[in-house]
Amino acid sequence: MKIERLHHIAIICSDYEVSKYFYTEVLGFTVQQEIYREERKSYKLDLALDSTYLIELFSFPDPPSRPSFPEATGLRHIAFAVKDLENWKLYLENKNIHVQDIRVDEFTGKRFLFFNDPDHLPIELYEI
């Protein structure tokens, strides 16, 4: 048995339009498909990065809250590889997004930073 690759990450958001804007306009994902499922009163938005399907963004009426911080049990964070971490930090701050200080991975020597999506999902940018 062999896993070939990561297929997608599924995210449930509390405010569909806010999260759709964040992932498309701020982070630069492109919409592959957007479906409204009437029976569930729910959107499903398929997002890609460089033509690679990566995120399913869901909306549901009144989803329950979930603890979400990097040290909580469960999914720790999602991470995206970027070039020029300094410019990303400035870009996000100019969008009024709180960004943690740039840190250095003690094992790889690579720089990274954290910020949150609109529902406080921790996101890491890791400089390559």
TrEMBL record:
Residues 5-128 form the VOC domain. Gene3D superfamilies: 2,3-Dihydroxybiphenyl 1,2-Dioxygenase, domain 1 (3.10.180.10). GO terms for molecular function: lyase activity; metal ion binding. CDD domains: VOC_Bs_YwkD_like. SUPFAM superfamilies: Glyoxalase/Bleomycin resistance protein/Dihydroxybiphenyl dioxygenase. The keyword Chloroplast does not apply. The keyword Zinc does not apply. Keywords: Lyase, Metal-binding. Pfam families: Glyoxalase. This is Putative S-C lyase.
